[in-house]
Please model this.
Amino acid sequence: MEYAFYGWESANSPVCDDKYKKIENPRKMYDVLSEIWCEYTCAPRLRQKWSENNKTVGQCSITAFLVQDVFGGKVYGVPLEDGNYHCYNVVGESVFDLTSEQFEGRKLEYRLENEQLREVHFAKEEKRLRYEYLKDKLNEYCNMPI
Model:
């Protein structure tokens, strides 16, 4: 099966915590998150752009830090014109971005610069709450019988 997110071909990282063994790899995580991402998990400033057809809009930082919880690695950011960063993951040699589809074909430069820290991102309570909601839903999935 082919995916549209950046780096899907090399997104083979194993989980770093057995409680997530049902996830298997980042492609499976994308499948699961596609059922969880919603308008609530979207960044408030981007909610008018969110739709069922583009579920990844406004989901980057909370998704990238959740990916880090499941697969390890680091979160980096691509600087955007508005001064914000678009977050993505680097696990071992694999660079991937589960939320790249929100850019609808626009090419981003994924450089291993601008490491992002959850302490900075989650200083915003609304972002931390969206992340916790996403994580709770992922944990519910993982606790379902295999």
